[in-house]
Amino acid sequence: MLRILAEQQRAAADLLPREVHDYYATGSGDEVTLGEATAAWRRYRFRPRIGRDMTTIDTAIRLFGDELALPVLAAPTAFHRLAHPDGEVATIRGVHRAGSLLVLSSRCSRRIEDVAAAATGPWWFQVYLYAEASIGRQVVRRAVDAGAGALVLTMDTPYTAAKRRLSGVPVTDDDYLVNFVEHLPAGVDPFEATTQDPACTLDALHELTGHGIPVLAKGVLRGDDALACLDAGAAGIVVSNHGGRQLDRAVPTSDALTEVVAAVSGRVPVLVDGGIRSGLDVLTALGLGADAVLVGRPILWALAADGAAGVTAALDAVRDDLAAGLALAGATSPADLPAGLVTPVPR
Ligand SMILES: Cc1cc2nc3c(=O)[nH]c(=O)nc-3n(C[C@H](O)[C@H](O)[C@H](O)COP(=O)(O)O)c2cc1C
Ligand SMILES: CCCCCCC(=O)C(=O)O
User: Fold this and answer.
1) Has residue 126 been placed in a domain?
2) 134 annotated binding-site participant
3) What is the DSSP track for 216-235?
4) Does any domain span residue 3?
5) Got the DSSP string for 82-114?
6) 84 Cβ below 6 A of ligand 1
7) Is 183 assigned a catalytic role?
8) Would you state the pLDDT for residue 260?
9) What are phi and psi of 176, to 5 degrees?
10) Any idea what the CATH number is for the domain that residue 70 is in?
């Protein structure tokens, strides 16, 4: 793990109330998948290329028409006001100062319009479906109207998995309901109405494509599912096991990435998250065929440790580490990676 990320994680552990720290840190079940996440990226080695001029390295990429300073996005994570009083408004400022992109969670703790007003770059909106479907539809409409550049439907969470370290999510009712309250039909229980809808189907994915912006499917761990999502209209795939917070013993995302990249065969961008903690982890993911990666918990720790400035510092450090890795691997940019850069360590 990069030193600054480890320092921010330690600082956050000191600053945050125990139950908030545990909500962010926990995985599901026995935390087998969580425990493997970072180590899985280290099961690969590089075959660097030599003999090229590495004077100038450019980590920038283009994704759905937007230029990002690095192929690293901030993953959708819930309730940033648990980490910082400004919540997602601080996060988006920090992310955009680093030239990155925030995927704003459906479970964000600031009004979507307030986060959008603080944006100085592109952002996407992550979608959950709720027991009361009309609420989700209205929230998505607001996100699109506020300027979301893409929708990311999270498909691995028909239910939120039990987490041993957690007795409940330590969020206030106001922060939990901030984007829902105006859409609650009369007489419904707000918390029941906004629990997960377990029927997050390919039809639901297809329905989202009607907004006229790209729709990505998040939580894909199989090649056949990736192809089914493309058939339903997905414009991108996010390989993810939800940071080890849904099905415990799900495969590491580095393993799934190889299968999904082969199945998708360049038709749409493939992104990946889970346990990515350094520029070399990013380089490994790119070498395995990802177009970009997302980081989850490091953004939360950075936000807790130092607000927007902490988020920028974390992403800048990953960008610098990636630039150094690219140069030593013999690539001037993510688009210039040599074929066969990454090879599994023989077991
Ligand atoms: C505290 C927390 C909250 C999360 N909330 C969401 C969410 O609201 N929507 C979603 O699609 N994924 C959510 N995720 C999963 C992340 O988007 C991402 O898949 C995962 O954190 C990546 O792993 P990493 O934390 O090891 O980088 C959450 C993860 C954490 C740790
Ligand atoms: C009832 C609150 C559920 C929040 C779900 C957010 C999430 O995806 C997570 O992993 O946490």
Assistant:
1) yes
2) no
3) EEEEE-SHHHHHHHHHTT-S
4) no
5) GT-TTTHHHHHHHHHHTT--EEE-TT-SS-HHH
6) no
7) no
8) 98
9) -65, -40
10) 3.20.20.70
